[in-house]
């Protein structure tokens, strides 16, 4: 931290320090050796900071935030982005294993007794559980590995209630040696993973959510988010990150709104969520320009697919990546694309294809330079698709543009004309 010239250094203590008999002495020793204060969080503070880490990426999260550490299980009800009831329970995976003397059956009884005290748990029925913490990520990793799921991104990996309960029941019944043989389980996790899985299983049985979304974010991200200026907190996390990529990696100034306004006539029934994804795609649509032309489409696809963006659903990741792949003229049979394409519905694939073709045409007409594209416009009507060009038609018209416009009209299944 000193070599990095860090201006603000925050040390937080969680349940381990809060509950340990020598926790206060440990804090004093850190202060003595390094001159740094440690803030030992209360159970409520720990739970809410963890939930804030999820809300930083999913501002409208609705359901139950769950963060399992070694010593505690933090639970916070989320009401469309606002905090509801919260509690911290002594049900961390290390503590459970120790208190139950390594007996999963005994631990199960302890978990059920604690959960029975939460009269608000039934309000989670049909909603989402957002599961954070290393033990929860280990469970998600096992599921990804064992089902050959095509996208190896833990954040927002989602399982339906039935699949989640089946997986956690299986893991809770495995011994250490069996778990160590499973791909995706680190040896240091194998000893206590059955207790974490059992605890999640009992919580799911009691709460009856519709799904479990595993989160790659938690307390640290919540602390970081808390330190941000209020104006930055109000930014859309997806759009903000994509704008950053556009500024750092694009050739020209950021003009995502201009591109979105131009392609919007192709999506007359678009809602706010669809426009948000279109804006993200527009901002990322120049991400591949430095790459070799022969590999541009694939490199751009993989880069967008793996972007470190909090809270982005897997379906949305694949939608954006596929749209950018089409924008760069990627071939439909590309192996890496076909691996994840099955996650998308037919309507999603159509959305990505039309978006990608429209973005390619927009860049071809304007050269990617802001201010030129609004001098043209697309119009989709009952009689077909029309590309309107200004009087100085020769500035925009070309054989390549005409071919691409025809391809876009065919993808829409309508006749096309340039006016």
What would you say about this model in short?
With 419 residues, the protein is α/β, with parallel strands linked by helices. The chain has helices spanning 15-19, 23-34, 43-57, 93-99, 104-116, 134-146, 161-172, 176-181, 187-190, 193-207, 219-227, 230-233, 237-249, 256-263, 272-284, 296-305, 314-327, 335-341, 346-366, 399-412, and strands at 11-13, 38-40, 63-68, 73-79, 82-89, 128-132, 157-160, 211-214, 377-381, 384-388, 416-418.
> How much strand?
5-15%
Summarize the biggest pleated sheet. 6 strands, mixed
User: Structural class, from secondary structure content?
Assistant: alpha/beta
Give the strand tally: 11
Number of helices: 20
From the alpha carbons, calculate the radius of gyration and give it in angstroms.
Answer: 25 Å
Large-scale geometry: elongated
Helix content: 40-55%
The low-confidence parts are none
**Terminal residue distance:** 61 Å
Mean pLDDT over all positions: 92
In what order do the strands lie side by side in the largest sheet? 5-4-3-6-8-7
Please describe the structure with a list of short key phrases separated by commas or semicolons.
419 residues; alpha/beta; six-stranded mixed beta sheet; three-stranded mixed beta sheet; 20 helices
